[in-house]
Amino acid sequence: MAKPRVDSAEGHAAVAAVLAGSSERTDIASAVRYLLQLMGDATPGHTVELRVPPFGAIQCVEGPEHTRGTPPNVVEMDPPTWIALATGSLSWAGAYDAGKISASGVRSDLSTQLPLAQW
Predict the structure, then answer these.
(1) Cα–Cα distance between 74 and 81 in angstroms, integer?
(2) 100 vs 11: CA distance, rounded Å
(3) Which long-range contacts (CB under 8 A, 24 or more apart) does 42-51 make?
(4) How do the residues of the chain divide into helix, strand and coil, expressed in percent and rounded to 5?
(5) Integer angstrom CA distances of residue 100 from 2, 57, 63, 64
(6) How many CB atoms lie within 10 A of CB 21?
(7) Shortest CA distance to 82 belongs to which of 46, 52, 54, 41?
(8) Sign, CA torsion 24/26/30/33
(9) Quick check: helix, strand or coil at residue 71?
(10) pLDDT score for 111
(11) Tell me, what DSSP letter sits at residue 2?
């Protein structure tokens, strides 16, 4: 069964609220899930597992699929970092160099897929 999709209007509102300074857990969770949904739509596939605990994870990027255990390409970061990367207020290189991204595997560099949109 597929995960329910975040409504576009609700997702945009949540992202806008977080970018305006909201620290409400529901706004952050909705923003993270909506941006993950956009990432999955923009870069479909099963080669990279993108994790933003505790709110969500997706598989994305075309290429070889993994079927068991930990995938060979894993990217993990906290919600503020994900939101900043996805919306363009932080660069991949800047976040990676600052240690805000954990990325393993040869396909784990998502710099060409981000930002998702300018907000």
Answers:
(1) 16
(2) 24
(3) 42/113, 42/116, 43/113, 47/71, 47/73, 47/107, 48/73, 48/74, 48/75, 48/105, 48/107, 48/108, 48/110, 49/73, 49/74, 49/75, 50/75, 50/76, 50/110, 51/75, 51/76, 51/77
(4) 40, 15, 45
(5) 30, 17, 25, 26
(6) 7
(7) 52
(8) positive
(9) coil
(10) 96
(11) P
pLDDT tens profile 61-87: 988 776 666 778 999 999 999 999 999
Residue 61 per-residue DSSP state: S
Q: 79-87 and 25-42 are packed helices; what angle lies between their axes, rounded to 10 degrees? A: 50
The pLDDT tens digits of the residues spanning 90-102 come to 999 999 999 999 9
User: Residue type for 14, please?
Assistant: A
Question: Are the beta carbons of 71 and 50 closer than 8 angstroms?
Answer: no
